[in-house]
TrEMBL record:
Membrane spanning stretches: 12-33
Source taxonomy: Eukaryota, Fungi, Dikarya, Ascomycota, Pezizomycotina
Protein name per UniProt: Uncharacterized protein
Keyword annotations: Membrane, Transmembrane, Transmembrane helix
Organism: Endocarpon pusillum
Length: 94
């Protein structure tokens, strides 16, 4: 069964109208998500149960300053810092 939506040969001006409508809808959704900081986090937390994902680390946008500082001082962070510092001050062997 072939369905040809353009078989009736619609007027050309319907295409810009449809394009402007889709663009306006997309732009308005983008503005809503851009202005509302908690909307994205709420939707993410509601859909996490659906996919069975749990956060292993706190979200930096929602975390308090003390939580961020604690995460930065973790053991893996100090190992990375020691590696960077030691490689910066040692001479390269050639």
């Amino acid at each position: 069964m072939n369905v040809d939506i353009l078989a009736n040969n619609p007027a050309w001006w319907w295409y810009p109208v449809l394009a402007c409508g889709v663009t306006a809808f997309t732009f308005s959704v983008w503005i809503i998500f851009k202005r509302n900081n908690t909307l994205e986090g709420n939707l993410e937390s509601r859909f996490n149960w659906l996919f069975g994902k749990k956060r292993k680390e706190p979200d930096l946008e929602e975390a308090e300053v003390s939580e961020i500082l604690e995460a930065e001082v973790s053991e893996s962070w100090t190992r990375k810092a020691k590696t960077i510092i030691s490689s910066a001050f040692k001479r390269k062997r050639s």
